[in-house]
Design goal:
Layout: H1 11-40, H2 48-58, H3 63-77, H4 83-103, H5 108-120, H6 126-139, H7 144-161, H8 166-179, H9 184-199, H10 204-228, H11 233-242, H12 260-280, H13 285-302, H14 308-324, H15 329-344
Helix pairs in contact: 1-2, 2-3, 4-5, 6-7, 8-9, 9-11, 10-11, 12-13, 13-14, 14-15
């Protein structure tokens, strides 16, 4: 750790430390053997919950132990208790899981078990879960697991109340991004929310107007962020998504509802911005790469061959990319070949 003086151990101290570590390893191996034997024998006695607790206290990333723990509850514990007793048991289980989340806030299996607890609880408290997501993200605003869990909790609140929280959640991501432009998880969450907000508008013309409004507002935000910190990859990945490059299959980009003329307008607008930024930051790899990508996209959209000037500019940009990002030299060489193929077509 930085700032902590390294203590040099003498031979006797080293020997004692090694013996202690060996003892711990043997203890853990013994517990694992007990677990494997019990599960193989389908021993779902409630006493084995203590065994799973011991193992998870050692290592909460052992997903098979979490699975066994759930099997014990389902096969032995739940069938023999009342609804209220089941709720009490799961409340205690949720507290145990929370104690693990505080120490290990990025372990998938912990979040997975928490979801299982809530889905099996007779009376899940989703408002309390929302408060937990607030605490998780206040501790680490970029915790991907925290954002993913928040989306899950929001979906359950919406389902229970028959209403949507998309607009409210969009405001939440805005606050997170305003605090830190580098919050990739917040930008990612924003893509999910915007897609939902646009898709729920059933009238095509209304959806188109909404998409235009959202697109320009989002681009204005990106422009501010880009000139503030042009090297931040989170900003440019989101910019690519807005312009229709990084959307998933079956998930149309915002630009898809716009006409050819409108898409052309936005592409030219963004290319102009990138050119201005490139003059200030000539070695910024995102500017170089997106100038090529958007330029090629514009030419495809217009069904026009690139000009000689564009050809020379793009080739020059691939040379710059190879210099500033040598680890991806092969990728940029392939990009140059793609440009030459387009030009020769």
């Amino acid at each position: 750790m930085h700032g902590i003086l390294r203590v040099k151990l003498n031979e006797e101290q080293k020997r004692l430390k090694l013996e202690k570590e060996r003892s711990k390893i043997q203890e853990y191996k013994g517990l694992i053997e007990q677990f494997q034997r019990a599960r193989q024998q389908k021993d779902y006695s409630s006493e084995k919950l203590n065994l799973t607790t011991e193992l998870l206290d050692w290592n909460p990333e052992t997903y098979s132990v979490w699975n066994y723990r759930r099997e014990i509850y389902l096969c032995t514990v739940f069938p023999n208790v009342s609804v209220n007793e089941k709720q009490d048991l799961l409340d205690k289980e949720l507290q145990y899981v929370l104690s693990k989340m505080k120490v290990f806030p990025k372990v998938y299996w912990i979040f997975n078990h928490r979801r299982w607890c809530l889905e099996n609880a007779p009376y899940p408290n989703w408002n309390y879960e929302m408060m937990i997501t607030e605490k998780l993200l206040s501790a680490d605003a970029r915790n991907f697991h925290g954002w993913h869990y928040r989306r899950y909790v929001v979906s359950q609140i919406e389902k229970a109340g028959n209403y949507d929280l998309a607009e409210k959640e969009l405001q939440y991501t805005s606050s997170a991004i305003a605090t830190n432009f580098s919050n990739f998880s917040a930008w990612h969450n924003r893509t999910k929310l915007l897609e939902f907000i646009i898709k729920k508008e059933t009238d095509f013309e209304s959806r188109k107007q909404l998409a235009q409004k959202i697109l320009q507002e989002e681009l204005d935000t990106i422009h501010q962020a880009a000139f503030t910190d042009p090297d931040d990859s989170s900003i440019w990945i989101y910019h690519r998504w807005l312009m229709g490059h990084c959307n998933q299959v079956g998930e149309p980009p915002i630009l898809s509802v716009l006409s050819k003329e409108e898409r052309t307008h936005y592409l030219r607008q963004e290319i102009q911005l990138l050119e201005e930024l490139h003059e200030l930051e000539p070695e910024n790899k995102w500017c170089c790469e997106l100038l090529i990508e958007y330029g090629l996209l514009l030419r495809t959209l217009l069904n026009h061959q690139p000009t000689k000037e564009e050809e020379a500019t793009w080739i020059s940009l691939t040379n710059t990319l190879q210099q500033v990002d040598p680890q991806r030299r092969g990728r940029y060489q392939n990009l140059r070949k793609k440009i030459e193929t387009v030009i020769d077509a």
